[in-house]
Amino acid sequence: MFIHVKKYGSIVKVSAVCLTMLLTSLVATFVDAGGQTQHLVTITGFKFVPAVLNVERGDTIVWVNHDIVPHSIVVRSSKEAVSPVMESGDTFTYVVGSSLVYACGLHPSMKGKLAIP
Amino acid sequence: MSVATQYSKVGSVAVLALCVFITTGCTEKAPMAAAESNVLTDANIAAIVVGANNIDISAGNIALKRSKNAQVRDFAQRMVTDHKAVLNSAVKLVTKLGVTPVNNDLVATLAKQSQEHEKNLRSLSGKAFDKSYIDHEVAYHEAVIGVIEGQLIPSAQNAELKALLVSVLPAFRAHLEHCQMIQKALS
Ligand SMILES: [Cu+2]
Fold first, then answer.
1. Of B81, B86, B170, which is closest to A70 when you measure between CB atoms?
2. pLDDT of amino acid B39
3. Average pLDDT of A50-66?
4. Nearest neighbour of B170 by CB, restricted to A45, A88, A108
């Protein structure tokens, strides 16, 4: 997603990265330069934040594990794995195909939902 | 002695003139009572955090050796992995702060109860083992959450240590919910 800033040189690229980091730390949802809607779900304090997200088919979800322990994403009803185990600091990117009612595969009390209205 | 009464004693060791949160259920008022009878130093708190995590790692390792129940084994592995991570971050912080853990009566009581529990676990197998391990995990997590909220957080002097204690609570709460689910499934 930073390809378009390459021609402006590394300084611009660095600030674009900084800006993106700032944005992703402040808001859960933003539209990137390619017009793609991205949603950030932060895993912190054994919670998915935000726990419920309204999404559209084709949107990108990025889970970031800010906890010191591993977590994972599974389909809540079937326990089928959506993500591999995310160690502390890991991210997992997922393109929405349908609504998803999920939980952490390691900590069943952690619950989340991607809802297509 | 039941596990619940056994662990209610843990609370009574460090806080005198108290409302013992587990037996009376007055968790909400416990922090105030503990704050007034502030007897824990940061060095004591460090020892309690290290001891409490080690106890759960040790019990988890026994369960991994003895249990054949997939749910129980998954939970035990979680206890080993998560409590090691909490322990490492606690050790890292107290090392950075230059705090040397100092044992107190609460640490001694926890250690003694843990030894008795482990001896009991080693004599059990099958469903009896799973039930004993999980029942104890429920009581233990309830007790530790009570101690962290009611005694450690109000007593902590160093802001970073206090923040660490606050940050580990969600882990203990998630583990409590997890073992309560298994407890229901086993009964
Ligand atoms: Cu988890």
1. B81
2. 80
3. 96
4. A45
Specify the CATH number of the domain A5-115.
2.60.40.420
Pull the structure tokens for residue A36: 């793609």
Residues from chain A that touch B181, judged by Cβ atoms under 8 A, are 108-109
Structurally, at CATH architecture level, domain B3-186 sits in Up-down Bundle (1.20)
Substitution target in B49, B56, B82 with the highest count of A β-carbons within 10 Å is B82
Task: In whole angstroms, give the CA distance from residue A65 to residue A78.
Answer: 23
CA angle B51-B53-B54, nearest 5°? 65
B178 touches chain A (CB under 8 A): yes
Say how far apart CA B4 and CA B142 lie, in whole Å.
Answer: 9
Band of the pLDDT at B21, cuts 50, 70, 90?
very low
The helix (H) or strand (E) run that includes residue A95 is strand A91-95
Does the pTM surpass 0.90? The reply is no
Listed by start position, the domains of chain B span 3-186
Integer CA distances (angstroms), B176 to A66, A70, B171, B181, in order: 21, 17, 9, 9
**Segments making up each domain of chain A, as ranges:** 5-115
Question: What is the ipTM metric for this complex?
Answer: 0.80
CB contact under 8 A, B174 and A46: yes
pLDDT exceeds 60 at position A11: no
Residues, CB within 5 angstroms of ligand 1 (ion) = A 71, 104, 106-107, 110
B32 C-alpha to center of ligand 1: Å? 32
- Whole-number Å distance, alpha carbon B186 to ligand 1 midpoint, is 22
